[in-house]
Amino acid sequence: MKVNKIKVSKIDQIDFDNLDFGSVFTDHMFTCDYINGEWVDAQICPYEPITISPSARVFHYGQACFEGMKAFKDNNNKTWLFRPNDNYERIIKSSVRLAMPEFPKELFFDSLNKLLELDNNWIKPGLGNSLYIRPFIFASEDTINATEANEYKFMIICAPANSYYSGDVRVKIEKSFSRAAKGGVGYAKAAGNYAAQFYPTILARNQGYQQIIWTDSSTHEYIEEAGTMNLFFRIGDKLITAPTSDSILDGITRKSLIKISKDLGIDIEVRPIKVSEILNAAKQNNLKEIFGSGTAVVVLPISGFGYENEKIELPTIENPWSLLLKKKLNDIQYNITEDPYGWRIKA
Ligand code: COI
Predict the structure, then answer these.
(1) Ligand 1 centroid vs 190 CA: distance in angstroms?
(2) Ligand 1 lining (C-beta closer than 6 Å)
(3) Per CATH, the architecture of 170-338 is what?
(4) In 10 A of CB 7, how many CB atoms?
């Protein structure tokens, strides 16, 4: 791998206390090309615009997918990744579904570790601070035949991050639009899954919601996920989350929270959740919490939701499970406690 370091870092120009998620990037990035059936020209270079032909297939057919992962710094200035193997495996799964070549594991980790070494100062210690890492792959071949491409680019860019949302978050349970269908690409981190959400999300935002809770595309009766996060519902003293499927992303934070909940003795059920069950629980004052989970959002309490013409606010409760689970997760991520699961990996 070639390494071309920046001459002068831009880190001094960054206000780390006021980061707008995903809008500031570190000094370096990784790029690698897939040409003639081989990954070639792996290099780390300064973060900068790249040149892509207007006929690159990604622009026309959306052949692209990505990952979201995080690095954390502990109080002794050591850097840790959280379950990075799971991210690697998921980008391979997404790539396969989108007919893209598999990126080699060793090169994935070599480039990632080199980037984290070069841009280490960009990872700030302190709870809430992290480095959001965005590996992605797209079809770069410059012909617009509507078939899978023969050429691709794999890249990694990194953005220092703190919180994804600020303020209260309300969600709308969607009844008309769908995020993903059976047999589709909902389980993959396909770029197009996100583009397809923007229009319905604008409509929801105009009604006072930040996000949509997607329901199954055939009946709209079952809860799926929220697009940037998986969902957990606390009804009474039971925690419920939907099982993963071909239309729901297999969230790494989601499966970590399921494991932590079980080990805390929380009564957790992974099963289909009917919209009517949530509405009934809310009406009986039995819906105690809704929260989302994801790499970017970590664990995000939801303060209310809308369904058709109803708007429901959740009660404020003492010692919510969302905060408890977030703390347990953060304790592992930031090397505050032991990691009995082997999730925390030294960068
Ligand atoms: C992540 O949590 O990494 C996601 O993929 C959500 C992102 C679209 C902000």
Answers:
(1) 11
(2) 68, 194, 228, 294-296
(3) Alpha-Beta Barrel (3.20)
(4) 6
